[in-house]
Design brief:
- It is built from 21 helices and 5 strands.
- By secondary structure, it is mostly helical.
- Among the domains are: 106 residues, no CATH class; 175 residues, no CATH class.
- A 3-stranded antiparallel β-sheet has the order 3-2-4. It has a two-stranded antiparallel ribbon with strand order 1-5.
- The longest helix has 30 residues.
């Protein structure tokens, strides 16, 4: 092992020296290959050195970072550049051999080093899946964001004001960095000293221009600051996607300005969403009181168990499993409606009767009761098309749903229902914040007259469904709409008896 390690180290050092010589001659090789790389003026003003970009492009094809097949061979590289890439490949192979020889002796922790990166200018936020530059873990020159003419004028004025503080003897750090927001100049101790020095000197006219562009004191135009504006736009875009953002600021005024501008941006976007919602629902809003009332009604529409919006969020456990198993979803019969009505007559919540009548039914309860009734029916049917494993899973699910606990609790589990004894804080929060996690009590002996009354009313609504598929059956979704139809809807005039 010692001899092999010495051999690999000697080979790596030798190839490294040869590559170093080719690296020193690289500028001349680039000019021989493409003479336009000799124009230094054009390169100086470019955001990315075109020669570096070309070398990186060729190397990416010669040695893909993902370990795939090379898209280019050395014979296909231009003649002047071929020696450089030949030495680069030899050095890569020598270092790989050295790494393999040292691996039994050296333990390297392959940890992520992304936290060591310094994102500067256009490197934040990162775009695409492009390769990182070799000096990505250190501070390096990188072009910042372009400034409009107005923003450049502000920067020059800031530099002039800060220069007045030291009479031109020190670096204009506050101005050259453009600060994090305009409030920094009007609130920070460094900025106040610079303003005082500029005001007492011969810079009064420049100060007036600066105030007009950036605002003054507590009326600073932070929302127009180029850096802050870009950060806020990125944060709000992430907020629209439901993501959270954490921003680190060097100065306190920047944090305050960010808080203020982001808050106004979110309020503005929420207001636009409210306007679109009211327009879609046909709600007329005359003042703030009408807006608040309309929002409360919309929340109740989505969360109240007796509202028509709750079925959008109810899990269709049985239907989902049957569709996955390529089995037919049952249709509701009049016998099923009678069984659901019997359960509804037994239902209690916090000691009171849940269904005194069927005018405003609890749709969460109806969904659980329908699945429970279907499960009891399907347990008696055979399913020859299923494999043994799928049949076993189906029987287990139907057995669980056929238990009355499926109606009492969410998914038949008391710990996932309100007032239960959850095993974790996450389950507690989920149950407490959802109207779908309600717990019901079922009386052992329902009142016979109450059962008869509910059955008659639910059957009446079931038989009046406009989308009946047969004389005595209908899809489950239609049944739920029928049972939940509100009493205050006007009759259409042709509700004749449908047989």
């Amino acid at each position: 092992m010692r001899e092999r390690l010495a051999e690999c180290m000697e080979s790596s050092a030798k190839v490294g020296r040869e590559f170093s010589r080719e690296w020193g001659a690289l500028p001349e090789q680039l000019v021989r290959w493409q003479p336009q790389f000799a124009h230094v003026e054009a390169i100086a003003h470019a955001e990315i050195d075109p020669g570096t970009a070309k070398v990186q492009e060729i190397w990416t094809k010669l040695a893909p970072s993902d370990g795939g097949a090379p898209g280019l061979t050395l014979d296909q590289v231009a003649g002047p550049m071929r020696p450089f890439f030949k030495r680069a490949r030899e050095l890569q192979q020598a270092n790989q051999s050295l790494s393999q020889a040292m691996s039994p002796l050296v333990i390297r922790h392959r940890r992520s080093y992304s936290h060591r990166r310094y994102w500067i200018g256009r490197e934040y936020p990162p775009t695409g899946n492009g390769q990182l530059r070799p000096d990505q873990s250190r501070l390096h020159l990188a072009p910042g964001q372009p400034l409009e003419a107005k923003d450049e004028l502000v920067q020059y004025l800031l530099m002039k004001v800060v220069a007045a503080l030291s009479r031109g003897k020190h670096r204009t750090a506050l101005g050259s960095a453009l600060t994090g927001c305009y409030s920094t100049m009007w609130e920070s101790q460094e900025g106040l000293k610079a303003i005082k020095a500029a005001t007492e000197g011969d810079q009064q006219k420049l100060m007036k221009i600066l105030q007009r562009l950036t605002g003054k004191a507590n009326k600073a135009k932070d929302s127009e600051h180029p850096k802050l504006k870009r950060v806020v736009r990125s944060i709000l875009d992430r907020w629209d996607r439901g993501e959270k953002s954490l921003v680190f600021c060097f100065r306190i005024p920047t944090a305050k300005a960010l808080d203020n501008v982001i808050l106004h941006g979110i309020e503005d976007r929420l207001n636009k969403k409210r306007v679109a919602l009211f327009k879609a629902r046909g709600t007329d809003i005359a003042n703030d009181e009408d807006r608040d009332k309309a929002m409360q009604e919309f929340r109740r529409f989505l969360t109240a168990r007796e509202s028509s919006g709750v079925p959008l969020f109810v899990d269709r456990v049985l239907a989902g499993w049957l569709l996955r198993a390529t089995l037919r979803v049952p249709v509701l019969t009049e016998q099923d409606v009678c069984a659901v009505a019997a359960f509804a007559a037994r239902a209690r919540i916090k000691g009171r009767v849940l269904f005194p009548h069927a005018e405003r039914p609890d749709r969460v309860f109806l969904s659980r009761a329908i699945e429970h009734v279907w499960a009891n029916r399907l347990l008696q049917e055979s399913r020859p098309s299923l494999t043994s494993d799928l049949e076993q899973h189906t029987c287990d699910l139907l057995t669980q749903m056929a238990n009355e606990n499926w109606v009492r609790n969410r998914y038949g589990r008391r710990d996932l229902s309100t007032g239960g004894d959850p095993e974790s804080a996450e389950e507690t929060e989920r149950a407490a914040r959802s109207s779908l996690a309600v717990h019901y009590d079922l009386a052992s002996e329902p009142d016979a007259n109450h059962v008869q009354s509910l059955t008659k009313e639910m059957l009446s609504r079931f038989q009046q469904l406009p989308m009946k598929q047969t004389a005595n059956s209908v899809r489950a979704s239609s049944c739920e709409c029928a049972c939940a139809r509100r009493k205050d809807r006007r009759d259409t005039g042709d509700r004749g008896r449908r047989c």
